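Chapter review: from sequence to fold.
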Amino acid sequence: MKKAVLISIGCVFVLSAIFLITAQSGGRRLLPMPETIFDSMQERNSQPLPVLKNPLIVVKKKERKLHLYDAETLVKTYDIGLGFAPVGDKQTQGDGKTPEGEFYIFTKNAKSRFYLSLGVSYPSIDDATRGWREKIISKQEHDAIVKAINEKKTPLQNTRLGGEIYIHGGGAASDWTLGCVALANEDIKEIFDALAVGTTVRIEH
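The token string follows.
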């Protein structure tokens, strides 16, 4: 009986304190929401990556893993999601496939609608050569892509080969993208902060 009374008094005290805090704040919430507390805990518990002298990203599509290397040393492995048709190399715009080959990061977007994103330099020279040979793109488009890649710039992103392939946030629980590589937001944050434009990205089947 005494225990029940003490619990009731404790509850009343906590509710009264919350009421007073809310009243003093003009109705604004001063106490953090549970998800805010959880996010803060995640940030405190996460360990920043070391300074990477020679970073390399290797994506293993079949394993659904992104491996981050510093030269030949594996630094960390992340879970990923792929395009909605993940098997095989990307061929054309809208096919839902994540491209395979060797690329580089051509841009970093801190205002992505998928939290943060790193632009992958698809289409490559090999993709452009195939596209021209199969009459998917024109000679002018092929030459523009080759020139951009040789200069480590942004290749054409709006041809029939497709484009706008990014490594971004939004979640890695399934293959849901249009061809991009998706990670959990806290994982892309680590990678985004650690890598620079020009970093090599190798995507394997």
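Two observations follow directly from the output. The beta strands are 55-60, 65-70, 73-79, 101-112, 115-120, 165-168, 181-182, 200-204. Residues 2-45 form one domain.
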